[in-house]
Design goal:
alpha+beta, Helicase, Ruva Protein, domain 3, Tetrahydropterin Synthase, Chain A, 3 domains, six-stranded antiparallel beta sheet, three-stranded antiparallel beta sheet
Length: 352
């Protein structure tokens, strides 16, 4: 269809120029194919969209690259909406920490598969989310503070040209998976320091100014408060070492609470322990004996899930963390307090 008119012209003159007829038809076909391939390549390089989608976009917009780009963006938004509404679970992904010595941000971005989690573009997006979260103005009080995701997604990364939400939509269109920014927190210690640790880190830390950014599948940040500003760089360095070791411990021990277990959690655990003992007791122990056993096991449960009561796994002989902080306070001449911690495992429940 594209060459009907040229072919008609060549047929009329074929008796005079048969060789030109064949040459002209071949040349026109080559020009048409090269032009189309070039435009598809250019659109693919710009958007990263699959070749078939680029061809469809150019066909739909009559070869207009600008309109084809918008066509792909709209298709990406529709694709993202379809994936989210379709209920496809995103149980993989990455966690990122963006930290300075005194504050940090921790984020989790979910994907459906580890194949996408290893994708360079996905990792770059995770880095952008972490870096942008670190620019959210920190609250005035020390501790762990959740970041509103809707507001975060409207922000533009420091080196970006569009919002995180727009980047996310475009990325969904490229990788064809349900992706989401699942959670984000801001951690502050002032006066004091923050310590962070990433398990199974993806590559070396990336620096953005004074902010260090690192990604992995499990990460923790600890806010270590002091009653006054450190008196020297040596003291600050010692505090940072203590905080980092605490973050390493958090990743290893997976505590659920800082110091106290909520009453509803205690009641639930007490009921489970009581029912388990009654079902397994064939000797008919008196009720007051069973109650003592339950309380003993409940205390053990509390020591296992609260950070300050756990044995420090990054210190020799695993002393209780509260005692480690007391000893460090005496040595440094400062009152050290654990203001909070954030523990993110890919697609696990929140811990803070």
């Amino acid at each position: 269809l594209y060459f009907r008119r040229p072919f008609t012209m060549f047929r009329r003159s074929s008796t005079l120029l048969p060789s030109v007829t064949a040459l002209g038809a071949t040349h026109l076909r080559t020009m048409a194919f090269s032009s189309s391939a070039k435009m598809i390549k250019e659109l693919r390089q710009t958007t990263g969209a699959p070749i078939l989608d680029c061809r469809k976009a150019l066909d739909a917009e009559a070869g207009d690259l600008t309109r084809a780009f918008e066509w792909l963006r709209k298709r990406g938004a529709a694709k993202a909406s379809d994936l989210q509404k379709g209920g496809r679970s995103a149980t993989d992904g990455l966690v990122a920490i963006a930290a300075t010595p005194y504050d940090a941000a921790i984020v989790e971005v979910s994907s459906e598969t580890d194949f996408v989690a290893r994708n360079e573009e996905f990792q770059n997006f995770v880095k952008n989310v972490g870096e942008t979260a670190a620019l959210v103005p920190p609250p005035p009080n020390s501790g762990v503070h959740s970041i509103t995701l809707d507001a975060l997604l409207q922000q533009t990364p420091p080196e970006g040209v569009s919002s995180l939400e727009t980047e996310l939509t475009a990325l969904v269109g490229k990788v064809r998976e349900n992706l989401s920014v699942r959670r984000a927190s801001r951690i502050v210690a002032f006066p004091g320091v923050v310590g962070s640790y990433v398990h199974g880190a993806v590559g070396p830390p990336l620096m953005s100014g004074t902010t260090s950014i690192q990604m992995g599948r499990c990460a923790a940040v600890v806010a270590l408060g002091t009653d006054e500003m450190p008196s020297s760089d040596d003291v600050t360095e010692s505090l940072q070492t203590i905080a980092r070791k605490l973050a390493m411990h958090v990743v290893a021990a997976q505590p659920r609470f800082l110091n106290e277990v909520p009453e509803d959690e205690l009641a639930k655990e007490r009921l489970i322990l009581t029912d388990t003992l009654k079902e397994g007791d064939s000797s008919g122990k008196p009720a007051h004996i069973l109650e003592k056993i339950v309380e003993g096991r409940l205390n053990k449960f509390i020591s296992e899930v609260t950070l300050l009561r756990q044995g420090h796994m990054a210190e020799p002989d695993s002393p209780q963390i509260s005692k480690v902080l007391a000893a460090a306070s005496k040595q440094l001449g400062l009152k050290l307090t654990l203001e909070g911690f954030a523990l993110y495992n890919v697609s696990a429940n929140d811990s803070s």
